[in-house]
Amino acid sequence: MAKVLMTGNAAIGEAAIRAGCQCYFGYPITPQNELTEYMATHLSRRKGCSFIQAESEIAAINMVYGASLSGARTMTSSSSPGISLKQEGISYLAACELPAVIVNMSRGGPGLGSISAAQSDYFQATRGGGHGDYRTIVLAPSSVQELADFTHHAFELADKYLIPVIILGDGMLGQMMEPVEFKYEAPEELPIRSRALRGAKGRPSRIIKTFTSKPAELEEINWSLFRRYQQIKKQETTCDAFMTEDARLIVVAFGIAARIAKGAIKTARANGLKVGMLRPVTLWPFPSEKVQELAKSVKQYLVFEMNMGQMVEDVQLALGGNGEVSFYGRPGGVIPTPSEVYKVISRLYYQKGLK
Amino acid sequence: MSTKGYIEIDHELCKGCEICIHFCPKHAISQSSKVNAAGYSPASFSKNEECTGCAICALVCPEVAIEVYRG
Amino acid sequence: MEKIYTRPKSLKKAVFHYCPGCGHSIVHRLICEVIDEMNLQERVIGIPPPGCSVFAYHYFDVDMAESAHGRGAAVATGIKRAYPEAIVFTYQGDGDLAAIGTAETIHAANRGERITAIFINNAVYGMTGGQMAPTTLLEQKTTTTPYGRDIKLEGYPIKISEMLALTKGAVYIERTAANSPANIRKTKKAIRKAFQTQIDDLGFSLVEILSPCPTNWRMTPIEAWQWIEKVMTKEYPLGVIKDTTGKQDAD
Questions:
Q1: Domain limits of chain B?
Q2: Does B69 reach chain C within 8 Å, measured CB to CB?
Q3: Least CB-CB distance to C20: which of B17, B55, B58?
Q4: Tens digit of pLDDT per residue, chain C (251 long)?
Q5: Pairing of strands B5-9, B66-70
Q6: C-beta atoms of C62 and A200 within 8 A
Q7: Which helix (H) or strand (E) element contains residue C80?
Q8: Which of A24, A25, A43, A63 to mutate to test the interface with C (most CBs of C within 10 A)?
Q9: Whole-angstrom distance, CA of residue C60 vs CA of residue C8
Q10: Whether C185 and B68 lie within 8 Å, measured CB to CB
Q11: Which of A170, A307, C132, C136 satisfies CB 3.0 to 4.6 Å to A117 for a cystine?
């Protein structure tokens, strides 16, 4: 189909509808309101679909939980402070093995913060965020096309692994307009998930819960969840390597920061610096194996994120001392330019005596 | 037995709350002296000839421990 | 002789974990009787709360799912919107529905969600050991109002059902009690009407049931059942609070 010019927020909405999203529950918060509004316009009147502007982000995530219980493809979206509110609900989704898609168009924090793009929700997204031991798949798009593709992919992953999937975008991606191609049409019908609650017709009644008064039972639930997470690590870890084959320094960046870094790296290459980039696409599971593979020949890494240093810890963990990690971060919603990042790269390249 | 009704109390389900004893209009139930496996003194159907099968006891029993027969 | 009273079919044969004289067991049974009589067992989805009745799924032989504390109305909304054929009910305590869940409850009612809330009001937080609830009466002693509920410090018992009646989306709200044969019969009728309201697609329905909690009230079961009559109903009068099911909304 033809490419259309769309904002990131709207592209997510269109992609979700084409993925068969049946229920959207959201709440207004800058900088993702265009997504909520898109769903109000385009999802609410579709047959069998439901849109609610809930009374809070907490209500919205619990409506997602309810819709997922009944077997619907369902999503919510918010930005950093609202995602904080959703943590309890996400923990319950993970505990009950319920698929759902949660979109975070991150903004500066902590607190009410700023409405400008930031990447300071990395820990919140990849370390569980809510209480208890659990993980969610985290996808980090870095273009409007990827917002569309990853949204579609998120619904499939959520259904395949019975896990909440977080799309970790940011305010800039949500607001920018780029050409995007939608590769999928909305399905006519989706199969009903086998554990969905739809009334005990022709089968025994079903209970979906995780509370237990027997710790050993909960222990086994935890082990079983983590066995699935192992499977996801093996099968779904994704990253993008850009000009890493002969690199002496590798920049590690995700999302919008990776877009900015790419510009900086092109300038670096034009000036004879052998710089490449590793862009994690799944932030969880993190592409540790790829890092270890690169570390066989490259020992210098510059982690660039729009925060105070979050993904840098995963890079350090992955390297396990087998490489040197430098960090460049801009928090608070400040968006650095490619030339600024290039200055950091070239300075580091010189300081580390790289040729 | 010329009674209009009778009840069967499951002594192991009964928690000895005495609500049925309190509400029985014929005072046909009383607390037994035995102790069940859970440690409660269960209610016991004592005055068989008074029972009309009104089923108030079963209505108020929290444990669904009473079955009522009428005829 | 004919057996005229036995356990309802949709009430699983399990020993209730509730205290002697507790209202939960009565209300569970009544809901199951209504489900049986209205032939709803294959359509019902129930959402119990955290609380003493968190284990409600051990007793109701229908599809059930856990909810986070207070979120029942939002969860039920999600289920009903995704699968409108289901008959969805929440089963919530006073803290769940009227403290932490106030926003979700009011807005589900305001939107006229086709769900039914069974609201168990026992004026206390039972499961956690007897703390103050929003419905705790003035001067009532609880573990967090050891000197009695004080207007200046803790405000008044909240009348959430009366507040919900102000929303147009709530079409049937009744307050009953599970403390006497007559009141138990009325409770069953109210539950039945609430489910019928949902089946008839009229709006949000709620039955508030004053329920005995002998353990946390520090009373015997009979004393607790009588306290509801003597004291609780003075603050929370029984009866229909709102019923617009018989007519169309003029707006």
A1: 5-64
A2: yes
A3: B17
A4: 899 999 999 999 999 999 999 999 999 999 999 999 999 999 999 999 999 999 999 999 999 999 999 999 999 999 999 999 999 999 999 999 999 999 999 999 999 999 999 999 999 999 999 999 999 999 999 999 999 999 999 999 999 999 999 999 999 999 999 999 999 999 999 999 999 999 999 999 999 999 999 999 999 999 999 999 999 999 999 999 999 998 543 33
A5: antiparallel
A6: yes
A7: helix C72-82
A8: A63
A9: 10
A10: no
A11: A170
Token pair recorded at residue A184: 């999928």
For C65, how many CA atoms within 13 A lie in the half-sphere containing its CB? 35
Which of A23, A74, A208 lies at the smallest CB-CB distance from C65?
Answer: A208
Closest among A107, A82, A74 to A175, alpha carbons compared = A107
Asked: is B5-64 a CATH 3.40.50.200 domain? The reply is: no
**Nearest Cβ partner for C22 among B53, B58, B62:** B62
Token pair in block for residue C248:
């169309």
What are the tokens at C143?
């573990």
Domains of chain A: 4-196+205-236 (3.40.50.970), 239-351 (3.40.50.920)
Q: Please spell the DSSP secondary structure of A71-113, one letter per residue.
A: T--EEEEE-HHHHHHTHHHHHHHHHTT--EEEEEEEBS-STT-
Residue A282: its H or E element: strand A282-284
A15 to chain C, closest Cα gap in Å: 19
**Coil, strand or helix: which one is C32?**
helix
Rounded CA gap, A337 and C144, in Å? 56
Q: Could you give all domains of chain C from N- to C-terminal order, each with its CATH number?
A: 23-243 (3.40.50.970)
- Interface test mutation site (partner A, options C32, C63, C92, max chain A beta carbons within 10 A): C63
Q: Is residue C16 a contact partner of residue B62, using CB atoms and an 8 Å limit?
A: yes
Interaxial angle between packed helices A87-95 and A215-236, expressed in degrees from 0 to 180 and rounded to the nearest 10:
90
Instruction: Please state whether beta strands C239-243 and C170-177 pair in parallel, antiparallel, or not at all (unpaired).
Output: antiparallel
Q: Which residue, among C1, C5, C29, C189, would best test binding to B if mutated, counting the most B CBs under 10 Å from its CB?
A: C5
